Structure prediction request, 1126 residues.
Amino acid sequence: MVDKIDVIILTGRTLQQGIGLEVGKVSEEYSKSVNYAEISRGDSRALGLTNGSPVEVTTARGKVVLYGRISETLSPGLIFVPYGPWINQVLGPDTCCTGTPQLKGVPAELELAEGKRVPTLLDLVKAMRGT
Amino acid sequence: MATYSDVICPFCGCLCDDIEITVENNKVVNTKNSCAISRSKFIKNDWGRIIFPTINGEPAPYEKAIEEAVKILSSARRPLVYGLSKTDNEAIREAIHLTELVGGVIDSTTTVCHGASIIAMQNTGVATTTLGEVKNRADLIVFWGSNPAEAHPRHFQRYSVTPKGKYTPNGRSGRYIVVVDVRETRSSKLADQFIRITPNSDFDVLQALRALVRGQKLSVGEVGGVQINILEELADRMKGTKVGCVFYGLGLNQSEGRHMNVDAMYSLVSELNHHTKFACNPMRGCFNVTGANMVTTWQTGYPFAVDFSRGYPRYNPGEYTAVDLLAREEVDAALIMGSDPASTFPLEAARHLSKIPVVTLERKETPTSMISKVVIPVATSGIETDGTAYRMDYVPLKLRKVVDPPQGVFSDAVVLRDIIERIKALEVDSI
Amino acid sequence: MRSLIIKGGYVYDPLNGVNGEKTNIYVCDGKVVEEIEERDAKVIDASGMVVMPGGVDIHSHIAGSKINSGRILRPEDHRKDVVKKTKVTRSGVGYSCPSTFVTGYRYAQMGYTSVFEPAMPPVSARHVHEEMADIPILDKAAYTLFGNNLFTLKYVKAGDIEMLKAFILWLLRATKGYAVKIVNPGGVENWKWGKNVDGLDDLVYNYEVTPRQIIKSLAMANEELGLPHTIHLHCNNLGVPGNYETTIETMETLKGIKPKPGRKTTVHVVHCQFNALDGDTWANVRSGASKIAKYVNGHEHVSIDIGQVIFTDTTTMTGDGPWQFRLWNLTGNKWVNKDVEMEAGAGIVPYTYRKENPANSIQWAIGLELALQIFDPWRVYLTTDHPNGGPFTFYPKVISWLMSRASRNETMLEINKSCIRRTSLANDYREYTFNEIAIVTRAATAKAVDLKNKGHFAPGADGDISVYDIDPSKWAPSKYRDLEKAFTLAKYTIKGGDIVVKDGEILSTPQGSTYWIDSAAPTEDELVKDLEADFRDYYTINFRNYPVEETYLPRSYPIKLEAA
Prediction:
């Protein structure tokens, strides 16, 4: 078992995220659809992750706590997080003059986040405001 | 109770136009033919609606909210108008007019999605086609960095995988489907062949394919995590097919390399046309992001990120693109419509929105509306108002109203016009 | 009662036989009228100036999907030519892919008041009309693409002219189109398999019809229906050295078609310069213009527009997918291809016409040879096939070349000498008169599309007038620079009785009208059943969502055909 793993962040759309955002960003459905990270079976084992427990993702830009979900198909070294304000906490704004930030293939560190809470949407908004 | 057929869904770039809607008491109670996301949009249309304007979070009459919006935008030195993709062309026209009036910058969600595709097209051109040509002729489909099963749920059945067309009478069995991605997805499960590549290696793999298509031999054993023989096979298959089409998504645009990944893809597809018939199509996300590009282009010459501060349109990705402007804290006011950048932008850019006065036109509460000084509720384009939208392949469709908006809630176009009229009355010289 | 008098100018109204007479034009409530009292009207002093009906451009790519793709493709073109907003006008960009507002302003500034978009793919017709709604001032129309449409091919194959006629009327109405446009018939359909056609008797895959059959059937149907314009035809083999033969063969094919009563022509061949090449390859290409001119002179059923080349960087864009692919291979410039389901296609490639390039010099000469060697100015029109030959803003330059041999010589001295060796332009001494210019830029083009209120000054005509600051009584062809200057910025442009341009400046931007054909065949119900079935099977949008709603035309001007 290890404390930290180097991973690459992949983001993307999901059906649930689409359904959730069309209900509304402040809905339960939406939060549930974007506040988790899919982690490979191998990495989960290495960390000692139980399905649904909080994990912390850290990049050069910041850190965020997400629910960890074990994936049977993801390769070790990769995590998948649906697009949304949660993962945007750790993604940087550098667009290399193209306008588009790098939202996929971003290096990060992954560790368990026992005792830490996954933020709510309101938490994220407050943090954005600096309140 | 009323039923409407041939309704066009205002969710994604597919613009499926065969939806059947049942309306009762001004509410959508059932849908037929719609995917799960579409169904959610229609049936939850009235969930969590903002029904009155607010200023600083407090309810305010419409007139006052408009006044405040006018004050914010007309006194700003560098206002940003952003979003556009979840509303109709009629509103987008007004948004451009407004931006020109106040000498600001206008940008759409293209900027974080397929902006890179457009930049690549500007460098290289692109061989493309409308979706019906794929349905009727294509026998090889490649999905690259795209997961339509989750993002464009009916794409497979309407356009690219299963439909029987004029020269594709066998439907699915007459097509070979390849999915290229960094991970297995619901889409890859449906493919005849799944090719897994290492993240950030799209450029290398595409360039390798280009070399192979040109008949060059590569002296490496693998590229981007893919064995050379797999790539050789794919190159041959692409060259030898009757009609091929690549559908690609943000796997190319948002990884390292951005527009260079797309450039490589476009070049590959163009070069394949020396051997056979091949086309390429970007999987546009929001239902009218293509329309936003179209209107912006025909009115200003440029497809997104247009600056009007000198009284004429200027275009320079990196300089006038929204994420960059916000990250550099160059913007001192914003009008957001048809989008939620506080959610979709990286924090360092989104954060600046909470520091400046923002006017948001929204249907439901979002992080953007929560940090806005002025929030004005708007009708749902394509459900509560008629409007024009462009499908991902540029086919323009007229979206139809099926229910009335909440009392006192107007369309984006009407709200923007009200703002424009009052700004004109101020005779603001924005230069 | 808004009244205007354009007083004392040299009036050119060829449709009514007025050739430089010093006379007045009277306008009231937007229309030309017999005479009005000076005290009741605003008077414009046009003495010492040329007065013509507002320009009518019969073929210019101004609105729609491929134009817009061209705009996206060419930010570098826009940066050359930025247009600031004013109190009256919106901002934009110009040059070869101008934005919509600027398109309207620039045409009006040149004294043009009607411009027609020549290639509208039906499934994206809505796009054309959306853009046209944002082109200010000008009256407009769009020609619907028919030549590679699955229904055209189906009915041509079946030999069913009646269904074809019903389809033409239905599609014109559904797309709010004005005329039947044909581009590389058969070739664009074959291009969907990566192929083309090489001649009039090649077969179209899966349909087993020939370009000849397509062209003839559409021409016959067109004339039997009595549509205002003939078929508007972009011939096969565009851009291929030696293609003048295909062009003449095409024209000859249509000799036997009976034109509708009131006209003699049965075909309009567009941007003929690109289809007037002799030789076998680009290495030995030479002008085929004289041969084409000879044919046109001897046969009354043909009209052409020249598609003049300008030495500048521009953007080629046509519905001829395979041709544009060829051009990509020739130049290596960025290439856009867009196939449109069941109907059409398009391609875009930036291109620079260079003075030192022998082929370009020959092409330059060809356009002028066509105009100078075809005797009947009522059948040869001034175009650059904007932007394919060059931006429309160069029309004054073309006028100067037509009216002044000295102007042509100046250019000929600057360009590759193949224009002298491999064309006959050096021997063309003809110089167009002001009257002939009025014919080829307004009178004839208005007549060719049968818009009875355009292109002339008889009472009842639309009050569309251009005044140019040049005195024909004092002008000589050596003063071609003055001529060019005068036609670049009109002294006055009047549209529907409103002064929209004065001293080259835009004063107002009224919305123009869009003309379209609003008729239906008696067999339309039967046709619709057939259309609906194929829509279900082949299209990706539903039949009900296909036709363009009239609300997309802010000033809709439907024209009903007289019963045939």
Notes: Chain A has one domain: 4-129. The beta strands of chain A are 4-12, 36-40, 54-58, 63-71, 78-82, 106-112. The mean pLDDT of chain A is 96.
